[in-house]
Design goal:
Blueprint (H helix, E strand, L loop, with lengths): L1 H9 L2 H4 L4 E2 L15 E2 L1 H21 L3 H14 L4 H14 L13 H13 L2 H9 L2 H24 L5 H12 L3 H14 L12 H15 L1
Helix pairs in contact: 1-3, 3-4, 3-5, 4-5, 5-8, 5-9, 8-9, 9-10, 10-11
Length: 221
Amino acid sequence: MLFAALILVLARPALAAGEGFYGPLPGLLVGATTANLTVNAAGYRHLVRRAALDTVDDYIAADYPRSALRVARRLVEEDPGDPACHLALGDARRALGPRGDLAGEQNLTEKQKKRNLAARVVLTRDERQSKLLDTPEGQRNLKTNMEAARKSYLKVLEIDPGMAETHRGLGYVSRALGRPIDAGRELVTYLKARPAAGPKTDQGDPVQDFEVLLQQQKKKE
């Protein structure tokens, strides 16, 4: 139901722009005056925002990062002051990895869709990523996407410095760009703020492990 409501809003420019929809609602309340009934677009968008953010996460989990990017961009356009929207944009851009931004899987040609589907059957996600990283284009795309993701994450911290998930994203970006010290530092910050994300086990405390690795790496350099 929420997903259907989200599609409705995205398809209605007037609502997406924050305008109210005015008009009679025949049959809704028989005998009642409906002239003053309106839809509060801002309030409606707030209600479906969580569903839209979950949709971004679902697209990423299903390995459809371009579709995730499309939704995240729309969310940022609608509410540039919401740090969660910028976080979603950063996550979507990071999920692209070595792939190019084609503005949504739904915009691919039938030939491209069939090729991608065949690749999904034959190769795992990591194998597809590795194959792309072996090409100059894949390397360029990786750098472009990681830098764009980093920009979005920094915007999140500018709006809400306390959003710990941003440090997780920055850690993954730094790791992808070959910056282990920066990656470790960001991931330690994230795990300290969200200890449940890396619970202690019989093998030790992940925060302490990261800090030890950081110190070892600094000594090597």
